[in-house]
Design a protein that fits this description.
With 382 residues, the chain is an alpha/beta fold. The chain has helices spanning 25-40, 65-72, 90-104, 136-141, 148-159, 163-182, 213-216, 249-254, 280-291, 309-318, 331-334, 338-356, and strands at 3-11, 14-15, 49-53, 81-84, 109-117, 190-191, 193-194, 200-201, 238-248, 261-270, 300-303, 360-367, 371-379.
């Protein structure tokens, strides 16, 4: 039994303290849940589960936000929900769990996705109470500790990227995202969010059309005095939500749903937790080996832009043409609402594949603790 994505939607991605900062993350989740069901035309009571990514599971994002989103969406109380934390890859993992459940026959229809309101639940909020998650045993094994920013500096040093290199990449991300916005390529996937004052949010807020390497050169390094990483070549703190409806082939036929893409291969890997961010390289290699495909078969690659050296090192190691990598920009320009990013990226990629008649796409993300997911999807011919 195969698993197919029949709908994929997202909100616009809001800047920190921007347009979406006034939205409770449960209600933001409910907006995409309602839309993904409405677009498909199926009754929510047919959905077997909601698998929802969220990293900051504290305060407004606590108490199994997936279940809260179901109730806030006014869906039947019979629909359950579960929340997943695989750090930045949480909603990509949610998709992979949903697919596995469908393929195993446990589910017929699942919504996978995620949310993060980093304006309302600041990064690091979960470790500000009740002790340190780094136990004495972990600290003894890794005495230098873990820091994603320092990991990005390590990657830049290992691959020999200069400050100019990473800034050039960052500017390119904004340029690609701006071009995509101007061409309207995000319009069909973005669910409008109506604010209390009547404002309707339909566009990603993070794209900086006036940025340049000269502007970025003025920013101070964020993690080491002589480093290359700063706010301008790292992913943006953001708010947003995204959802995908995943169903079995039989369910799609029975309910006359038109598949967008089939999940071909999904893998996850662990890697060095100190450098932390290099996992997309072995994850991609594992996914390609498992799928029997090569980089030449893949028409679109999405590598999450947690920091510029991540996709840059990935491209060096995989030898992929830069035109196939993050073609509509990435998290440096569009933002990185942690628990929603995997689903946001997959939504973008599937719609991009459809517009350009691309058979295979591959998405991969680095994740806290030295992990990475990779997922290959195949466009369904119509």
């Amino acid at each position: 039994m195969g698993a197919v994505v029949v709908e994929a939607v997202r909100t616009a991605i809001g800047r920190r303290n921007g347009a979406l900062s006034g939205c409770h993350p449960v209600d933001l989740s409910a907006i995409v849940l309602r839309d993904v069901a409405a677009r498909s035309g199926i009754s929510p009571e047919l959905i077997d589960d909601v698998i929802w990514g969220c990293v900051g599971q504290v305060g407004e994002q606590a108490h199994d936000i997936a279940r809260g989103a179901v109730l806030a969406a006014q869906w039947p109380e019979s629909v359950p929900g579960v929340t997943v934390d695989r750090q930045c890859g949480s909603s990509q993992q949610s998709l992979n769990f949903a697919v596995a459940g469908v393929v195993a026959g446990h589910y017929d229809a699942v919504v996978a996705g995620g949310v993060e309101s980093m304006s309302r639940i600041p990064i690091g909020s979960t470790v500000q109470v009740c002790g340190d998650p780094v136990s004495p045993s972990i600290a003894a094994r890794y005495p230098d500790g873990f820091n994603q920013g320092l990991g990005a500096e390590m990657m830049a040093a290992k691959w020999g990227f200069t400050r100019g290199d990473v800034d050039d990449y960052a500017v390119g991300s904004h340029e690609r995202a701006a071009a995509a916005q101007d061409a309207g390529v995000f319009d069909s996937q973005i669910v409008p969010v109506t604010l209390e004052d009547g404002t309707v949010v339909t566009a990603d807020e993070g794209v900086r059309r006036d940025t340049s390497t000269e502007i970025l050169a003025r920013l101070k390094p964020a993690f080491t005095a002589d480093g290359v990483i700063h706010a301008g070549n790292a992913s943006q703190v953001s708010d947003g939500a995204a959802a995908m409806l995943v169903v079995s082939d039989d369910f799609a036929r029975k309910h006359r749903l038109v598949p967008l893409a089939r999940i071909h291969t999904a893998v996850v890997v662990g890697t060095d937790p100190v450098m932390m961010l290099g996992g997309p390289i072995p994850a991609t290699e594992k996914a390609l080996a498992k799928s029997g495909l090569t980089t030449a078969d893949i028409g679109a690659f999405e590598v999450n832009e947690a920091f510029a050296p991540v996709p840059m090192a990935w491209r060096v190691e995989l030898g992929v043409d830069e035109r196939r990598l993050n073609p509509s920009g990435g998290a440096i320009a569009l933002g990185h609402p942690l628990g929603a990013s995997g689903a946001r990226i997959m939504t973008d990629m599937i719609h991009y594949m459809q517009r350009n008649d691309i058979r295979y796409g591959l998405q991969t993300m680095c994740e806290g603790g030295g992990q990475a997911n990779a997922t290959i999807v195949e466009l369904v011919s119509r």
